[in-house]
C-alpha cells in the first residue's frame, strides 16, 4: 500500500536548500481504484522492507497485518483520509504507522496517494525555544518547518484550516499535506527564504479538503534564526483573504463591464460584450436573449410578459470552445416555457437563481427535453437569470450558468449579475434607439437632398423640400444641382413611387446614379435611358446592389443649361413639365415629350432644346406641389401660373410664395421644388478660334491664348495654359478630324476646350522609357484640377479646367 516517486533531491549534506530535502524520509505509495499498488518509493522500502518490484502490480491488501479486519474505513466520496494502520513488515513483524491518503483524479482515472513519515522527529528540550522564537516572529496562523522543509509545529488555526492535527502533519512537507499545484509554489518560496534569508510573500488559491469552495490565502514565509543568526527553519503564516479577494474581483468585473460593454451602438455586439465580460470570471456559460418586438428599434410592450415567452438568441459565450452547451443558434427565435428560469424572471421582473436538481431536470424533460439533455451532458448545477430592463421597458433576459466551477450562485452573485446586466441593458436600449434614429437620419442625409448646393456661375438657384410624413426623410422625392464641364450645369428633380425607408433608399440610389451618369456627360435622353435600365435591374435583382422589396417606379426630369450658348436641353420620364418665366414675366409650361416613367423599360426618351434669355426662370417640381386631396392637377397648375406671374424680390421669396399658396396644410405627398434663374457668359468671358489643319497652327493657338489671358488679367495662368493648349490642339490635329476649334471660357475657373469632328475619346496611358509621346494627357491631368471629354452631335470636345490664381 505504499510507493511511488523515486527521490529527486539529495540528502541534507548537499550545498543548496533543495539538497537538504530527503525524499526517502517519507514513505509514499500509489494504489489504484482496484486496490493494486502502482507506485512505491525508497521511503516505503525503508519503512516496510519491500523493494518496488515485490509490491508493484500486486494487491495492497497483502501489506496489511490483518487482512480479515483491515480497520481501513470506507473511502468512497472522500478527497482525503488520515489515520493509523497496522502493516506487515517484510521480515514478518507488525508495524503501526500513521497514514495520510489523498484521492487523485486525472484523465478519467483515479487513485490514492498514501504518505507516511519513515521516522517522526522526537521532541527535544530545544523545541521550546524554537517554538517561542517562531511564535514571536509570526503574525498569523502558523506552521513551522525545519531546514528540510518538514513540519515541526502547527498552531491551532493551522490545524483547523487543514483539518488535521499537528501530530498528523508532523514530519510531512507542504506538498504532502496539501495536494495542490499551489503547494509546489509555496515550497519553492520556502526554499527561497532559506536561500536568501529574506521573507517571501505570495498568494495562493486552494481548494482544501473539508472546505466546500476554493479559498484565497495571503502567505508569508519567514526564515527563523537562532540566537547566533543560523537558519533553523521557515515559519509559514497564512491569512484567509477570500472575502476581500472576491469583493475586489467583483469590483474589477464591474469596472471591466463599464469599460467593455457598450463600446459601439450595434445591438448584437453590445449583447456579445456582456457575454464576453461574464465568462469565465462570473459564469461558465452565458446567453443573451431579446424580445423580438424590439427588433427594428420599436418599443417593446409595456409590463412584464406572462406565460411562454418567445425570444431571439443574440449572443452567447462559454468556457468551452464553440459553445457546445447552446441549444438555440444565434438569430433563432425560441420558445421558453412558462416555468423556465428565463420566463419566470421576466414574469416576476427580478433575478432568479435556480439550482439544478434531479427533480428540476425531470421537470425540464417534459417541457424542454433538449435543454435538459444538454444540462445533464455538461453538468449544469446552478443558473442565474436576470431580466434586462431599461427606462421601464423589458428588453430580454441574460442567463448565467455554471457547470465547471463548483460554487453555486449566491446572493452576492445575484447582485453582481444584476449590476453588469443593467449596464448592458441600458447600452442595448441606447443601441436600439440609436438604430431607429440612425436609419431615418442616414437615409435622409445620404439619399434625400444635397446638404448644400454647389457653387456655379450658370444659374442662381433656390430649393425647398417638404416631406409628407411627420417622420422626416422617409419620402422618395429629390432634387439636385450638378456642375458639368464647360461652365454648364444640370438640374434634376425626381420622385420615387411610395413612401418610407425603401422609397428613400431607392431615391438615394437613383440620385447617385444620376450624378455618375452626369459625370460621363451623357445627353439628357441617353441619361434617362441608362437610368431606366438601372431601375429595371434594381426591381429584378440583376444589379450588383441588392434589390429592394416591392415594385420600383420613379419619375425624373433632367435639364442641362449652357451659359455660353444659353441653350437648355430637357428630357423627362413621366414627370410633370417644368415652368418657364421669361424676363418680361410671361409664364409657360414647356412642351417636353413625356417619356415613360422609369422602370417600364424598352421605351424611348426624347429631348427638347430651347434658347433661354438671360434672367429667365426655370421651375422644376414634383407632383406633390400641384396635386393634392380635393384639388385637381389643372387647378394646381393654374395656381402655380398665378404665383409665378407675380413679381418676386428673389428666388427664396418665389419658393415661399409657391409653397404657401399651393400647400395650405401639410401635403399628402412629398414636395421637391427647384427654382433657377439663368445667367449668360458674354463675349467678354469667351474666346473662340478655328484651328487650321497645319502643324504650325499649334504655336499660333498658344500665342492667341496668351494674348487673351493677358486681356483678362490672368498672366499667371499663361504657362499652364500654353501647355494645355499645345497638348489638346496637337492631339486633335493628330488623332481627330477637322474642323478643330479652340475655346477659352473665363468663369469661376479657366476652361480650355478643343473640339474636333472625331468621336474617338482619348485616354491616359503610361509611356515607355524610349517613347517620344504618350505623356501629354498625363501632364494635363497633373497641371489642372480636372479634364475630360464629352460627345457633341458632330464630334467631341476635350476640356481641361484650371483653378484661377487667388487675388
Q: Mind sketching the topology for me?
A:
Layout: E1 26-32, E2 37-40, H1 42-48, H2 52-55, E3 80-88, E4 94-106, E5 109-117, H3 126-137, E6 141-146, E7 151-154, H4 156-162, H5 166-169, H6 174-177, H7 181-196, E8 200-206, E9 215-225, E10 231-240, H8 242-260, H9 267-278, E11 285-290, E12 309-318, E13 333-336, H10 341-348, E14 352-355, H11 358-367, H12 369-378, E15 382-390, E16 393-402, H13 411-447, E17 459-466, E18 477-483, E19 489-496, H14 501-519, H15 524-540, E20 554-562, E21 567-573, E22 579-581, E23 587-589, E24 607-611, E25 617-621, H16 633-645, H17 651-662, E26 671-678, E27 686-691, H18 697-712, H19 718-735, E28 740-746, E29 749-756, H20 776-783, E30 786-792, E31 795-803
Antiparallel strand pairs: 1-2, 1-5, 3-4, 4-5, 6-7, 6-10, 8-9, 9-10, 11-12, 11-16, 12-13, 14-15, 15-16, 17-26, 18-19, 19-20, 20-21, 21-24, 22-23, 22-25, 25-26, 27-28, 28-29, 29-31, 30-31
Helix pairs in contact: 8-9, 8-13, 9-13, 11-12, 13-14, 14-15, 16-17, 18-19, 19-20
Jot down its keywords.
807 residues; alpha+beta; six-stranded antiparallel beta sheet; five-stranded antiparallel beta sheet; 20 helices; 31 strands; 28% strand; disordered N terminus
Number of strands: 31
Summarize the main sheet. 6 strands, antiparallel
Number of helices: 20
Shape: elongated
Radius of gyration from the alpha-carbon trace, in angstroms: 45 Å
Query: Termini distance?
Result: 104 Å
Unreliable stretches (pLDDT < 50, length at least 5) are 3-18, 469-473, 542-550, 767-773
Question: Percent of residues in beta strands?
Answer: 25-35%
Strand arrangement within the widest β-sheet reads: 13-12-11-16-15-14
| Helix percentage range | 25-40%
